[in-house]
Amino acid sequence: xxxxxxxxxxxxxxxxxxxxxxxxxxxxxxxxxxxxxxxxxxxxxxxxxxxxxxxxxxxxxxxxxxxxxxxxxxxxxxxxxxxxxxxxxxxxxxxxxxxxxxxxxxxxxxxxxxxxxxxxxxxxxxxxxxxxxxxxxxxxxxxxxxxx
Length: 148
Ligand code: DQA
Description:
Elements: E1 2-7, H1 19-22, H2 27-40, E2 44-49, H3 53-65, E3 70-74, H4 83-91, E4 96-100, E5 122-125, H5 130-140
Parallel strand pairs: 1-2, 1-3, 3-4, 4-5
Helix pairs in contact: 3-4
The structure holds 1,3,4-trihydroxy-5-OXO-cyclohexanecarboxylic acid.
């Protein structure tokens, strides 16, 4: 499968940012481990991180133009309020899985709500970097967005 992995604002700070919540593994190392897991499963992956909403939307649209089979997205704080990202995910017929390093449901109340998850086939939260690998395996069984 051709999978696009997208990470939103502040995820590039993983490793030093609130390590009690997000862990001590740096962003580059985390993505390298996820890429190795993808390669061992025969997937082709592209990883992209941005602190800018529009840049993430551009990548979602690129995933469609370039025939990606799946999107794994950790929208960071955009999760909780970006209707633009939600619309971008809904605009493409590519199945997406939302990932969060932390369990957003046991944190502050504003994190309990995801506006982007409704445009995804599912959400994985609370398993740290393993969440990206779980998402990959979930996508492998889902080639059609609405295939329940
Ligand atoms: C996060 C959870 C969000 O609430 C937060 O704003 C992040 C990271 C996570 O991976 O746990 O930046 O998406």
